[in-house]
Amino acid sequence: MGGASIDNDCLDILPEDLLQSLREKERKAIEERNPAISEAKRRRQMISSLPKLFNMIHFLLQSMNRSVITKEELVHKLIWTNFDIVDRKEVQEQLKLLLELVPDWISEKQLSSEADLIMIHINKMSDPESIRARLEEAK
Asked: Matching InterPro entries, A to Z (predicted)?
């Protein structure tokens, strides 16, 4: 019981803003240990980067004058042209989110069951501004 009052005495002498900061850090640490909260936070962060990824894919395929590309080639080109992205898994997860959020703009199709050849198709008829706006709203 004496230890608790000593702890409270120590807390009483600390400035209120420092105490608030410590409590906030403790709350964040507890959240980070919770897998459900951590995963939801990671998903929100990934969704917030989708408008930028959309722009990259849109301009890349536009510059190549193509609407179809293998998934492997697309991932490679995205990593190669963007120094912020270094993780293939991250790019693939972001592509999966794009497929989920804007299926009218981007779709994928596996060409053969034996090979891992997956084609990504971009709908050139979609309005880029409306797609970009929908991705911004998803944040």
From this structure: Cdt1 (IPR045173), Cdt1_C (IPR032054), Cdt1_C_WH_dom_sf (IPR038090)
CB 84 within 8 A of CB 93: no
Residues in the chain: 139
Whether residue 119 contacts residue 108, with contact meaning beta carbons closer than 8 Å, is answered with yes
User: Do 29 and 51 lie in a common domain?
Assistant: no
Inter-axis angle of helices 88-101 and 50-63, to 10 degrees? 90
List beta partners, residue 119: 70, 109
Q: Domain with 125 in it: what CATH number?
A: 1.10.10.1420
Residues in the chain where the model's pLDDT stays below 70:
1-11, 114-115
Q: Which residue range is the domain that position 26 belongs to?
A: 2-33
Crossing angle for the helix pair 88-101 and 35-48, to the nearest 10 degrees = 80
Q: Are residues 53 and 26 in the same domain?
A: no
At residue 46's C-alpha, the angle toward residues 75 and 121, to 5°, is 40
Structure confidence by residue, pLDDT tens digits, 53-91? 999 999 999 999 999 999 999 999 999 888 777 788 989
User: Is the Cβ–Cβ distance between 91 and 107 less than 8 Å?
Assistant: no
- Structural domain includes residue 41: no
